[in-house]
Input
Amino acid sequence: MSNPLLICQGIPPFADIQADHVQPAITQLLEELETELGELETQLNQTDQITWEDLVPPLEKISDRIGWSWGVIEHLLSVKNSEALRTAHSQVQPAVVKFFNRFSQSQPIYQAYKKLQQSEEWHSLEPAQQRIITSAIRDAELSGVGLTGTAKERFNQIQTELAELSTTFANHLMDATKAFSLTLYHPEEIAGLPPSLLNLAAQNARLHGEPDATPQDGPWCITLDFPSYVPFMQHSQRQDLREKLYRAFVSRASSGALDNSPLIENILSLRQEKAQLLGFNTYAELSLARKMAGKVEAVAQLLEELRQVSYPAAQRELAEVQQFAQIDTLHHWDIAFWSERLRESKFQFTAEELRPYFPLPQVLEGLFGLLKRLFGITVIPADGQAPVWHEDVRYFQILNERSEIIASFFLDPYSRPHEKRGGAWMNDCQGRAKQPWGIRLPVAYLVCNQTPPVDGKPSLMTFGEVTTLFHEFGHGLQHMLTQVDYAGAAGINNVEWDAVELPSQFMENWCYERKTLMGMARHYETGEPLPESYYQKLLSARNFMSGSAMLRQLHFALVDMELHHRYQPNAGSSAEAVRRQIAQTTMVMPPLPEDKFLCSFSHIFAGGYAAGYYSYKWAEVLSADAFSAFEEVGLEDEAKVIEVGRKYRDTILALGGSRHPLEVFKQFRGREPSSKPLLRHSGLLNEAA
Ligand SMILES: [Zn+2]
Output
């Protein structure tokens, strides 16, 4: 039988794919594609007048084939993991990465894009086509393709050094986190801890040389990992132990052999040099060159707008916690604990209590009903019409107003810890694109990790699981409702990453809208609707301590921006000093002397968020403002809601990466984004303002 990983088109025959198909398929495919790419490069080198047809479709043909096979393997790795598949994947991964690099750094392709940009044909190309080409040139340049000679050598050297420094940073942090643990032997030391944490703590103790540890009798081992640290700080009644843990947490990786401080200065200085080699003044300018915000000033302005409102709000919230706690001096290690007690006293309900009101089939009905209402699309089950990778996976089709199929998706809802990665995500199985035979329709993977059905009951969801499903569906809608026929800008492709979370967070807002929520929240046995008191609690819980939460994010975003823009590494000051300076206006309680938060800020020093941490808030502003377009016309006015819904579908969801996201946003909203709706939704601005 032929190798199913070499089909390279259509919906993958999941059931036929085995781990031992991976190596032969990828080896053969890369060999063929190397040859094809080489031939294309030669041809491009010899042509002076490049046309779109000469360049883009042949490139897409190559990237489509490897994208298809590699996409299937990566998908199965995340939803149907096995030892054999992992091994096969890691065997071929370096070759695949190398091929993708060769592709994105090809000098002949880069030159061909530039020739196309200067050709006569350029002016007759559609905006989507022009933007695909402009983005391709920009991305190639930002990866150093335009450099030559010593500049190129230095650039490559910096890239290698930066990769190593990031890895070391992450390893230090991991080792420092692991190096600390607090083992508790006496029942009075676990006062207040919830059963889930005691389970985890006993399990940790068994790993730390206490083979007989049990959740009931201990010993219990508390670590600095989030699932252990966060609930301990929220629930432990022992102030002395909270203090111990807090001090250890904020000083991770800041001394001795695992000290990240020198790495930070090094990373910042290399990034600055890299930016300058590419013709930018600062690394922040380089980062923003491929983002919607575009300019440092635009980011600074937004962050300051939000800061001015959230700072006094955070002060008020802290005062409220202090008053509630009735202690004279509130310390850092008291805040999480007393905030939780305050939350409990204000909204007495647990996530568990709401589950019976959110059985999955009903939630899907509610979600699909909303999609019909807003966007005029119909979702129909099509189970059995496409192969699946697990019997719980469902397959659906989407029909437009003329009952034509326009897209389809897989939904893999339940947690399967033995073979499925945690979290929730949307991925593309296939993107919309013009093909010689017609239009290829988009297919999405929607993956969640919610509680599976037990004892004959349907899967009963927490409200958090409901909002997660809506969130991922928002990404899915941008992928599936795109009207762009050029693969490079269809759906989520070519969307600036500070704008990518707009459609997803937009959908979350509907979980709080009365009609949508009350329409789907009914008790799975009695059919009784969600009691009004719960609805009110959900609304107020959404904004609990929202000023403090926002201010914390702003602190991170402002520090990140400052370090990558104005700060000069190795010039007498230090990154830590910059952070403390910014803390004066972004923290209501000054950090402790040993608080070296930067040494654990892996988002920007070991992840992809450098000069980009602001993106979280940026996208939230966009999504809140988009939702407020519906609030403005009145959520009770059905005709208006439908009208705005169609407009949203035809702009934000339809245009994908074919236009600059600001242009798309303005087409929908009729103006530039405003931060007011986010502040209002967070309870930080009253209606009159
Ligand atoms: Zn998302």
About this structure: The pocket of zinc ion is lined by residues 471, 475, 501, 504 (CB under 6 Å). The first helix runs from residue 22 to 46. The radius of gyration is 27 Å.
